[in-house]
Amino acid sequence: MADRSLRGMRLGAQSLQSEEGVTFSPRRRSTYQLEDGSTFEVTFAADAEIPTIWESPKSGREGRLVGDNGKLVPLDETETRIPRTHWDMLLERRTRAELEELLEERLAYLRARRGEHKIGA
């Protein structure tokens, strides 16, 4: 026990664990190129889908993926989807006439619950 004494050791600064028996998961490095021609590398898991655009950790600008042949990978147009709003999704399920009818029903219900009556035609 005397040989494992912690006396004189900087606690927290050094790990007592060894790297014996540790195996890292397979990885792959991808290179990205900025508009000015400079490059940077990003490490991904070997089975991960590699994005065609990645933000540079130093400059914050977007870089494009460089393929194995040394040329820039073309951008896939399906990645730039226009986000749908709640209104768009609602119009996919119902027509505008159905929505107006539902609105009138709900307004009549709320008015009746509050004791208000619609005045006029």
Bin the helical content. 10-25%
Instruction: Give the biggest beta sheet.
Output: 4 strands, antiparallel
The main sheet orders its strands as 2-1-4-3
Q: What is the number of E strands?
A: 4
Which residues form runs of ≥5 with pLDDT under 50? none
In whole angstroms, how far apart are the ends?
96 Å
Report strand %.
15-25%
Secondary-structure class:
alpha+beta
Q: Using the CA coordinates, give the radius of gyration.
A: 31 Å
**Number of helix segments?**
2
Order of helices and strands: EEEEHH
Molecular shape: elongated
In round numbers, the mean pLDDT is 84
Care to describe what's here?
This protein is an alpha+beta fold. The protein contains 2 helices and 4 strands, in the order ββββαα. The chain has a 4-stranded antiparallel beta sheet, with no helix packed on it. A hairpin with a 5-residue loop joins β1 and β2. It starts with 26 loop residues before the first strand and ends in a 7-residue tail after the last helix. The model has no long low-confidence stretch (mean pLDDT 84).
Main attributes?
121 residues; alpha+beta; 4-stranded antiparallel sheet; 2 helices; elongated
Walk me through the topology.
Layout lengths: L26 E7 L5 E7 L7 E3 L6 E5 L19 H8 L2 H19 L7
Antiparallel strand pairs: 1-2, 1-4, 3-4
What is the gist of this entry?
By secondary structure, the protein is of the alpha+beta class. It is built from 2 helices and 4 strands. It is elongated and about 90 Å long.
